[in-house]
Amino acid sequence: MAKSKSFFLILILGCLAALAPFSIDMYLPGFKAIALDLNTDVPKVSLSLSTFFIGISVGQLLYGPLLDKFGRKKPLYFGLSLYILSSICCLLVTSIDQLIVLRFIQAIGCCAASVAAIAMVRDLFTVEESPKVFASLMLVIAVSPMLAPTGGGYLITALGWQSVFVFLGLVAILMLLASIWWLPESYKPDPHYSLKPKPILSNFLIVLKEPSFYTYALISAVTFSGLFAYVSSSPVVFMDLYKVTETGYGWIFALLSVFFIGFSQVNSYILKWFTSKEIVFWALIIQSIFSILFLIAAVYNLLNLYTTITFIALFLGCLGFINPNASALSLAPFSKNAGSASALMGALQMGLGALASAVISMFAADVIWPMPAVMTIAALIALFCLFIGGRKIKTNINNL
């Protein structure tokens, strides 16, 4: 494949994969404005984030079989069209309940983009090329949390919170046109592929019975719920409690994203001296200690803006070590069912993330302790999963 054509193709796939994180992060600075406009409070607005996580979780399980049954492009067209329609409807909402429902529908739509992008990388590139392509996609996804809230903050300040959904809808239209004109159909539809629940569920059950999967996938998903607790409560914490502006919040969110991205890149170098299992163990220990200290400081009102940012940065830094290693260890035993395992792990992450953000929304908007409380619980449960599940893991991944 020519380099210029390959670059353009990877750029389109990267933009498709980044649609979901952009949709999550870009409207976060608008929580306060949405609450004022729709006569509600910020915790209730954060439920629209919870339903988005649920939609992503359900969608990952839904689109996998559809992409194998109908090819890559038809489900992608459907998903992007659904996303565009729901984005338009978000402009017309008159109550927070309508926005909560529409964000779920929007998530179902945008999930097609990320799942199709990953599947098309496997289809269009060789085994030798795929790791580099995936690295390029991950870079685009990783950069989006730095750009989305900052750009969203400026848009909301200038044009109001509805402008975010106008922007996202226009981006999705461009992606749909690019997919129609420039993306090849990379997979021949399989009319014999069964969409019946029994064979699909049987594949998931095979995955769930593997000790390495349920141990490390749970660790990855539970610790990720701490990340989602931060994401859903950060508008309240920074803009309501610490009186940070929308644009200031965007810059803080971008700064904290650097810690997660940066430590995940440092992880690649540390693997030269330590195994994935060792890194996960020590990162969980350190994350648990920092989370407990964060919670104690919150309960006794010892926090300010800068100490809060520091504790969150330390939690996210540890997560940057935990997530890539736990993901690799959970998928290591699989060859035939790697797709099912990947979808199940992603659904588990988003499902627990939705639960964490829903829990956060139940508390009053004038306290900070629910965020470190969820982070602490997540870190300790993950550590417990490692101690219990680690005893049953097969020895064939000891060298990872």
UniProtKB/TrEMBL annotation:
GO CC, alphabetical: plasma membrane
Membrane topology per record: Multi-pass membrane protein
Residue span(s) of domain Major facilitator superfamily (MFS) profile: 9-394
UniProt GO molecular function: sodium:proton antiporter activity; xenobiotic transmembrane transporter activity
Tagged with keyword NADP: no
Protein family according to the UniProt entry: Belongs to the major facilitator superfamily. Bcr/CmlA family.
Protein name: Multidrug effflux MFS transporter
Organism ancestry: Bacteria, Pseudomonadati, Bacteroidota, Sphingobacteriia, Sphingobacteriales
